[in-house]
Amino acid sequence: MAVTELILVRHGESVGNVAREEAESSGALSIAMPMRDPDVPLSELGARQARAVGQWLAADPARRPGAVWSSPYLRARQTAQLALAELADPPAIRQDERIRDRELGVLDLLTKRGVTTRFPAEADRRRWLGKFYYRPPGGESWVDLVLRIRAFLADLDRLPGPGRNLIVSHDAVILLFRYVCEQLDEDRVFEIARSGSVTNASVSRLVRDGADGEWRTAVYNDHQHLEEFGAPATEHPGEIDVAR
Fold first, then answer.
1. Distance (Å, rounded) from C-alpha 168 to C-alpha 95?
2. Which tens digit of pLDDT belongs to each residue from 181-205?
3. CA 200 → CA 40, 136, 144, 148, 174, distances in Å?
4. What confidence score (pLDDT) does residue 241 get?
5. Domain boundaries in the chain?
6. Residue 187 burial class via C-beta count within 10 angstroms: exposed 0-12, middle 13-18, buried 19 and up
7. 3-state secondary structure 185-229
8. N or C: which end of the chain has fewer CB within 10 A?
């Protein structure tokens, strides 16, 4: 049982988050983005949020991670880099593609209205199967993310090294870390999702400190550190309908 604590941080606000919100608000069918999803950078506010995460880590030596992992997507890497720049002698950032964002396939860059207009059969299939099992053509279901996370955690436990790991990732991935670690079921994970999406640059902490080796959630979706260090919190759901 090498790993005893996971500090899960969602990336700061990205220009993609802002563009999606504008497209949904205007009733557009698609989101105007001139780049691939892996190449979407942080917004100016997102960079401030990332630095606030680093200031929060630096404020208490007990929070310092022994190892840092990031999704390879630019917005996550930038968040990790800006946060760690606030630490003295920070650990290296290691990337792992298994903690990247969910791939949406043919539905990529479409708003909710865009999906129902351009792919009505897929919208119907999504409603029938439900969020957990629906896989858009060329994309992934939440179950696919779960398989990635299980493999990542198994490898993490086999690695020698520190018990506290910082993971910078994406909203649905962070939620599904809870699903895997706490051995939740489909109903419970959506109950959590309905309470609100994972906030940009929020902190969630999963720990296992008992003899049974079971994980528990110590903190979930906390963003008090953002206000404390002068970076307003933002709630941008990374997907069209996280809650189910």
1. 9
2. 999 999 999 999 999 999 999 999 9
3. 14, 25, 23, 22, 11
4. 56
5. 5-228
6. exposed
7. CHHHHHHHHHCCCCCCCCEEEEECCCCCCCCEEEEEEECHHHHHC
8. N
For residues 160 and 226, the answer to whether their CB atoms sit within 8 Å is no
Least confident of 56-65, 126-135, 230-239: 230-239
pLDDT at 95: 98
CB burial of residue 4 (10 Å; 0-12, 13-18, 19+): middle
Whether residue 73 has pLDDT greater than 50: yes
What's the chain's Rg over C-alpha atoms?
A: 18
Q: How far apart are CA 153 and CA 72, in angstroms?
A: 17
CATH number of 5-228: 3.40.50.1240
User: What is the mean pLDDT of the segment spanning 71-96?
Assistant: 97
Closest listed residue to residue 232, CA positions, set 17, 45, 85, 83? 45
